[in-house]
Specification:
- This protein has about 160 residues and is α+β, with helices and mostly antiparallel strands.
- It has five helices and five strands; from the N terminus they run ααββαβααββ.
- Strands 2-1-5-3-4 form a five-stranded mixed β-sheet.
- The longest helix is centred in the first third of the chain and has 19 residues.
- The protein is globular and about 40 Å long.
């Protein structure tokens, strides 16, 4: 009972507009991880199976854990360079953190924060004044894996020219 009360409180706190994005992310990760621990002590019960489409169009199976970010799961699979995002915070984002998520899964994610929208617009098209963001674009560091995302399909876009060494 104490755990469910704590999770409800964390949910209410994380929706507070006065919190920074990094604080909300930490709260979301902590509550997702604690929820996974309370339901089962087995790691196998925390596994989230995902499908990722790489820039060449090949489908790859990706395994993540509840409470882990999508970025971490994709980096572990080798689809995103871990050096492109050192801190798993929005301040360290680059265009390589961007992923495209299928519509049916977007509806299961929390809405984008202002900071996430800003970063996506910043990197969407550097040559255009009117930077239109793909409606399926999200930052991998801002998507925290939950059991509801089991089977999610994401696409890793081709690296932007300004991010290529």
């Amino acid at each position: 009972m104490a755990i469910s009360t704590l999770q409800k409180l964390a949910s209410q706190i994380s929706k507070s507009p006065s919190l920074s994005l990094s604080s909300r992310t930490v709260i979301a990760r902590t509550s997702a991880t604690s929820a996974a621990r309370t339901t089962s002590a087995k790691v196998s019960d925390r596994i989230i199976n995902l499908s990722a489409i790489d820039p060449d169009g090949n489908k790859q199976d990706v395994i993540g854990l509840t409470g882990q970010t999508l970025l971490k799961a994709l980096a572990n699979k080798g689809l995103i360079d871990p050096a492109s995002h050192r801190l798993e915070e929005i301040d360290a984002c680059s265009a390589e953190c961007e992923v495209h998520i299928a519509q049916e899964w977007l509806d299961k994610l929390p809405p984008q924060s202002y900071d996430e929208q800003y970063v996506l617009r910043k990197y969407s098209n550097r040559n255009s004044r009117n930077r239109v963001v793909n409606k399926h674009a999200r930052l991998g560091c801002q998507v925290v894996l939950t059991p509801e995302l089991q089977g999610m399909v994401v696409a890793v876009p081709e690296a932007k020219p300004w991010d290529t060494p």
